[in-house]
Amino acid sequence: MPVLVASDLDRTLIYSPAALALTMPDARAPRLLCVEVHESRPLSFMTETAAALLSDLGDAAVFVPTTTRTRKQYLRINLPGPAPKYAICANGGHLMVDGVSDLDWHARVTARLAEECAPLEEVREHLLDCADPLWVRKHRVAEDLFAYLVVERELLPEEWVKDLAVWAENRGWTVSLQGRKIYAVPKPLTKSAAMREVARRTGAELTLAAGDSLLDADLLLAADRGWRPGHGELADAAWTAPQIAALPERGVLAGERILREFLRATRGATP
Question: Exposed, middle or buried: residue 225 (CB in 10 Å: 0-12, 13-18, 19+)?
Fold first, then answer.
């Protein structure tokens, strides 16, 4: 039976320049491979070693990129290795099959959101009304599923995020702060549900996962084994679970370590 590897991308496998955490002397810094270009500028990187590991993983397991990114944002990433047959976008709102969204899956997700959560428009209006223009740079709605703000972190009041989380909780939504982005996401919109669907379709009996943020917690808990890096929301909260390994590495080297762990677990499960 195949092994399924569902991994978050940003700040887990791929890293923006600000998230690389190259704390070593310049002469010892790893060689980097650009895996995303946006508006003619390099945007995301992984180490060359990580790129080789990911290529090996793509041959050994069913690798499923699993991201909160929109479909458009995901499709501009150029990962090394075999093109993944499946990908999870919009935090589980879109299940991509050979680069195209599965319409039946999307319809099931949106029907559940309509039944269980306050409408997106109510949440968007609340964000517009209560966020201070002093520290908000952008308001965005993603795939008509969830909303997020791009903020200046140094100006963002810590209590504001906590208050927003309480307000959202009462309406069936959750809040996550990742770098310069504050996400408001419906609770039933999960990466784990989409991962289970891919496991069902592929017949995978072993599922592996990795992620760094609050939005990845359900994915990690749903997997048989999981890893989180030494940075991000989950690390800041010292979050863990029995099947989760908390890694010490931070930044782009954490991505390399996670891929080594994926390969080790995959090869150990394959006769």
Answer: middle
